[in-house]
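Quarterly update from the structural biology core.
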Amino acid sequence: MKVSPLIGVITDFFRRTTLHGFKYLGSRFCLDRIMWVLVCCASACSAGVLCAVLWARFMQQPAIVALNDTKDLTSATSGMPLVIVCPPADFIANRVVVQFKPLSNESWLSSALEHVIRKKKVREEHLLLLDKRLDDLGMALPDALIKYSPECRDMIVSCRWQNHQVPCRKLFWKQFTDWGLCCVLNPIRLQSKRTKRLFDHLETTRRLDIALTCDNSSFSYYGYEVLPLYHGDEYITPQMLHRGLSYWLQVTYTRTLDNEGSLLDVDAGCVPYDGYSRLQCIARCLEKICGCSDPLVATDLEMEEQLPQCRVAQLNCLRVTKGYENSSCGCLPPCSQLSTEMSVETNKMDFVDRTFDPLYAGLNSSISNVVYIRVRMRQSKVFFLLPTETWLTLLSSLGGVFNMFLGVGLFSALEILFLIIFKLPLALKRSAEINVPDTQ
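Predicted structure, tokenized:
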């Protein structure tokens, strides 16, 4: 019986291959061929099930949690948060509203501007009227807030970093935040040559003391709002400061890092960039949807496309309800999860006249506050997620499964490639030549 070249090549491959059991498929006995077909199918199914299990485990991103070294925890840039001091939004709103000419008698106008500063939704007719009053004043909203808000040097009169007096005017500057126009202290500025000491790396507690004061007519009930805020925090509650009290803020933090994004190559479920915030991503997305930028945020000079600033009447477009923004913008959470805990202790400032602490020099206890911020580095923790499954381990695991059940190794792969690329095309060519009929 004449066998076609294609069937002959395939039969010869099964007889010579190193794959488990496939050479018995060319046996002369039918019972042997049936039995080995069942065995090969069972082996292939087992290999497929194990490969699916390995892939599912790989997609779950299993990792080992490792505690960071203590010497890294004591670095000031990783331990000290941003400190934000904000005057009350209603106080700034009142100072802007009294500049409107003629003097407005609408009691709701100051309340509406306060909601605008705090980035809340306001009735459309109120926003239109605020826009008209600002146009009559000849100023945009950010310019009016900056001009009529108190200066940082007038609010923060004394600063001390690690028991070392530092000039406050070089540490704090005005900046728009999610809580209004505030005075912001970046911890990087604390690492100047004048404030950096020889034994700073040995200290396990970061200490920042600030003294705040305000005019008698400035605030009716409370003074300022203070926020110890780390980069990437999604939400934090401001600490309200009542006049005449000193505050001890004990801060600890727990941060979980993903080992420089090594777990992110599999699943795009989070963003690995340092300093990334989902709220900032949502804000940028809404600005593109509305066609204008929020005037009450710090300008990002790195953005390629600078949108025009929104007028007051357009701000409601940027103040969407919770849940809508994530579904529309698709902003992912940051991969570096950070949680903070802050305990607060208050005391009356009835000892100002009897203390020798220079931080209290010249303070009026009835209209001032002193804030002690302590970051406990020993109680704070930084964890690293070390992946147990990577592309290399997945490849080796899959190779072991195929080799155990099917005998597929490097040489078997070369045999299969040689069969597909060279032998089968030649056999097909020969079969076509043989089947050509003789025209004579």
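The chain has a mean pLDDT of 76.
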